[in-house]
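Hi P.,

Sorry for the delay on this. The queue was packed all week, but I finally got your sequence through. Input first:
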Amino acid sequence: MKSRIFLIAILLIFATSAAAQGYEIKRASDGPFSFSISGIKINEGSSLTRESILFNDPSAPVELKSHSTQIIYKDRGFRFSGSTELDAKQPIVAIQVRTILYDVFGQHMKNLANTEPKDFSPGTANITGEWRAFDNDITRMLTTVTYVARVRLADGTQWVFDADNLQLALSGLNLEQKIGETDEE
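Then the structure:
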C-alpha cells in the first residue's frame, strides 16, 4: 500500500512538472528596488532588484516579448505604469494583459489588467496602462508576473487563458499561488 501511494505521488509530481513546462517563462530585471522619485528616497539601503516574469502560453494567439512596471508620480499621487511589448500571431481586435504584483516576501499584493479594445495586425505592438498605487504599494512591490488573459480574434472567436495551467506554472516559482480576478482595470 505504501509503495502504491509513493508511486502515485511520484506520478503527480511528474505530471505537475510536465504541465508547468507547457508555459514559456521568461525572467528579467525590472530595475532597482531602491530608487528616488520626486526627491523622495524609497527603500534606501536595499540591494534587492525588481523582477518581471512573463508567462507565455504556447496556445495563445499573442506572445509577450517584454513587460515593465515602473512607479511614477503623477496628478499628486503615485501610479504603477505598465508597458508591454507583444507579438500578435494573427489579427486581433481586443486583448487583456494581466499583471500580478508580489511583495518582497513573494506574497500577493494586487492584480492589474490592461484591456485594449483595438485592432492589432500580426506583428509587434506595444500597450501601456496606469493604475493608482498607494504609498505602501510602492515600498513593497518587488516581483510582477504578466500573462495574456483574453484575446478576441478578428473572426469573432475568443482565446481565454487556462487558470489551472497558469496555477501550475506559478507553483514552480517562490510566490504565493493566487491568480484571482483583477483588482483594477
